[in-house]
Amino acid sequence: MNDQPTLYLDYDGVLHPADVRVTATEPLRPRVYNGGPTSHPLFEHAPLLERTLALFPEVRLVLATSWCRTLGYKYTVQQLPLALRERVIGTIWQGALLEHPPRSRYDAIQTDADRQGLVRWLALDDDVEGWPELQRYRLIAPANSWYGLSEPGVADELSHALALLCAGQPLEYRRPAQPEWPSTVERIFGAG
Question: In this structure, are residues 62 and 112 in contact, taking their beta carbons and an 8 Å threshold?
């Protein structure tokens, strides 16, 4: 059993917009696309992740990004700012997973967590496909893959989940209960 607080980190849709591609003529020059290549910066939200993680020095990162498969692990790690690079302990894309990719990112993450014996982990990823409802409490997922981590509320949700994770408290209860007061729609239109 490994009690190390761990965050599985995706890049695209989290640290910058989701549509990132490389071309055959520039295989090591990923670019953000929006109908075509743009000059939009990669890793624009990495400083926000750095600031969020600064309060949790014990948290380690495992890369769950497809960059490791397409661009290589070493290159992928080197793209992060130093403070984040120093936290990286590996990737989900190794061994058998490289030869036989899993059905979903969740499957790859769960396989890695089981392999490492992790008991305290969560994922920061915009890919919600394949996450069982009973495991969704482990996922911080921006709804807008253009804004990623900068989407209002996402960094706060991550910070709250990391605080629970590092304190050894159950993550299952991190989502706040529904408010006891009526919604604006209910107040205006008298739903009920």
Answer: yes
